[in-house]
């Protein structure tokens, strides 16, 4: 039922699209296929939107997101991460290698949340595994010592 107030109609349409996302998307896809003018307008709108909000491969967007995630997960800012990275010479604290084109992982204590150092993905995985399974590590060491002669 259409509303006389355009704001109420707009809110109703928004709620409908949220509740019926698949149906609304299918309807828009079909309209874009059958109506070339609508398809062109959709492409123009999407292009303006991406440009306006600097979405997709934008350094600005990356830094905002990275800073937010570092703050939320580890309680440090992107600047603090950069200082740690520079202090370590841009390499993993344990093995001294870079992480390729990926950034180094923030190693932290899962119980206390305290940030320790920056590690490559491989070392971060190993530290996490060792930290969570010290008994198994002792068994592995014993197994390797017993079978060193082979």
Keywords:
150 residues; mainly alpha; His-Me finger endonuclease fold; two-stranded antiparallel ribbon; 7 helices
Distance between the termini: 80 Å
CATH architecture of the largest domain: 3-Layer(aba) Sandwich
Indicate the percent of residues in helices: 55-70%
What is CATH's topology name of the largest domain?
A: His-Me finger endonuclease fold
CATH superfamily of the largest domain: His-Me finger endonucleases
Structural overview:
By secondary structure, the protein is mainly α. The protein has two domains: 6-50, no CATH class; 59-134, His-Me finger endonucleases (His-Me finger endonuclease fold). Helices cover 65% and strands 6% of the residues. The protein contains seven helices and two strands, in the order αααααββαα. It has helices at residues 6-19, 21-34, 36-53, 59-74, 78-87, 121-132, 134-146, and strands spanning 105-108, 115-119. Strands 1-2 form a two-stranded antiparallel sheet. The mean pLDDT is 86.
